[in-house]
Amino acid sequence: MPLNSLFIEKYSAMTGGISEATISRLKPLLEEIRELKKKHHAVILSHYYMTPELQVDTKNGGVADFVGDSLGLSVAGKDTKADYIIFCGVKFMAETAFILSPEKKVLLPDHQAGCSLAESITGKDVIALKEKHPGVPVIAYINTYAETKAECDVCCTSRNAVKIAKSFESKELIFIPDKFMGQNLASKFKTETDKTLILWNGSCEVHEQFRENIESMTMANPEAELLLHWEVPQETVASTLKTRKGIVGSTSDILSYVEQSKASQFILGSECDLGATLKGMFPTKQFITPCIMCQHMKRITLQNTLDALRSIGTPNEAQYNVSIDETIRKKAYAPIKLMLDLS
Hints:
- The protein is an alpha/beta fold.
- It has three domains: about 5-110 and about 295-325, 3-Layer(aba) Sandwich (Rossmann fold); about 120-200, Rossmann fold (3-Layer(aba) Sandwich), CATH 3.40.50.10800; about 205-290, 3-Layer(aba) Sandwich (Rossmann fold), CATH 3.40.50.10800.
- It has 15 helices and twelve strands.
- The termini are far apart.
């Protein structure tokens, strides 16, 4: 049976084409993944930063049951009735899925898929911050590990950070761990609220690189509008958006902006494969990006996703299984639950 024509069409839109060699490579992997998903009652959650073959959803002949950002995938994982969740993302995301759905088996295709931002802070660091700033609520970006979330008041994603922060009466808020996202949020709060943020010195190793190339790209593409993630350094956001139309916000904000914009050309300041997502969704528009990739996200592949599915019911399953100490899980659940209630 040939590779699904819908898959070929979607993959080609995301990447600019597909070769016979790629078709030959992908076809047996996709077919076996579909068979094993059905056999083990499993679903695949795939983040926007995954490579295109993992982003094509089942409606388009792919294997991803849900494709989205952190909040969308968290909700999808919680609501699915599957026995197994295969999380195509990084470790903190798979942890979040397990925290919300401890009755399910959550498998991560590569446990080395970490996050520079999540690794910048620990639960002990949060405890020290609370001792230094008694009574000040702590908002943890979802890009944190479970033991860090467990010491915080509420979580947020890039999509709902402003709404979450505004829900607190306190004039001061501790925001962890991304200093650049915090600085961008603080700038927004200056015009919209009287709140101030106490920040942690963490950053995303992908987005911090955009301080070096966005301005030169705007000069080379004078008609392009800007799509900047909250995690891009604040000085870059301020200097470029001062003279150019565009947005700074979450992945969902970026997708909505492109959908509504009449522009035909955009400069993307986010992970490379979000560009593939945008090309697949808006094939008549052009997206310019230096294509900075997250090395952690790219540890998740179609092959090790298949390997995780093959491991189900065998001794090898343990190497993919995500588990968290129940005491920490319960403590980490509270700020995530509050986030979902407020979203």
